[in-house]
Amino acid sequence: MSLTTAITRRSVLRTLSAVSAVGAAAVLPSMARAAEFSYKYGNNLPVTHPLNIRAQQAADRILKESNGRVEIKIFPNNQLGGDTDMLAQVRSGGIEFFTPSALVIATLVPVAAINAVGFAFSDYQQVWGAMDGKLGAHVRDAISKSRLYAFEKMWDNGFRQTTSSKAPINNAKDMDGLKIRVPVSPLSISMFKGLGAAPTSLQFSEVYSALQTKIVDAQENPLPIIQVAKLYEVQKFCSLTNHIWDGYWFVANGRAWDRLPADLKTIVARAINEAGLQQREDIKKLNETVVTDLQSKGLAINRPQSDTFRAKLREAGFYGEWKGRFGDEAWGLLEQSVGKLA
Ligand code: X2X
User: Fold this and answer.
1) What is the pLDDT of residue 28?
2) How far is the CA of 225 from the centre of ligand 1 (A)?
3) pTM score, two decimals?
4) Which of 84, 188, 221, 283 to mutate to test the pocket of ligand 1 (most atoms within 8 A of CB)?
């Protein structure tokens, strides 16, 4: 970045913070006292990710529409610990909100991983049809049994892609023995074992350093995360395997949610669900530009076909096993959206 751009950017930032200071002062009188409900929201992503940008907008809107009665403080980027810690905290009430990926909340609510069955979804139309429809309702119901409230609209993580410091993945054979990090997720471990790889579960907070120190050679995440978490600094190849569609459930601690009077529940739910819909659009747009950006940062991109991966998973009995684990009802709902899998 040139000096002039740096100065311009800095002065723009200064102007922006001056504007928001004025904005805050204008609403200050009504908020001079502490908020009646001061809630904490933790997540695992850098502040630059659309999830954090849209969540901050939702929090600002909630503060305003509730006349200062509901304040949501965001703790991004694993500041409160990794996913496992945040999941424990949102259950105990240590924090009131958390956005676990479907893969992560599945350690508590197993059926929540159903959207992450390997190579099930082929596009976003299928994804949102299922998650805004019967499959999503089925999962939300299961989440509520763990005394967590899941907001109606799931947020997007994206289709997961495979990066490596060793070699590109062109077909299932290239997965052989690959030391790959996956989330703390039984489904991910099972799928990568089925493909012949050697997966290890690590929380996202540890991924960058695990790649940097070569504890693992590969990882898999959607492109926007590879970009904002700067994983291209420690990876060379990015294979667009599209193996899993992953999303974030926006969840609240059940007791904290029930403490809110009905009018505030309406304000909070509307702001969060609408921000979620906007966040989905952000990810969709980002997906159109991010490949070029990652290439310019040195990642070599390739686009494998999915047929060899699917065939290998079938052969390994992956679909049959997970149909049994998820149960006929959930599996049936998934197949209503994506067609026959097993
Ligand atoms: O841990 C990951 O890879 C991430 C960030 O995608 C999830 O939250 C599952």
Assistant:
1) 53
2) 8
3) 0.90
4) 221
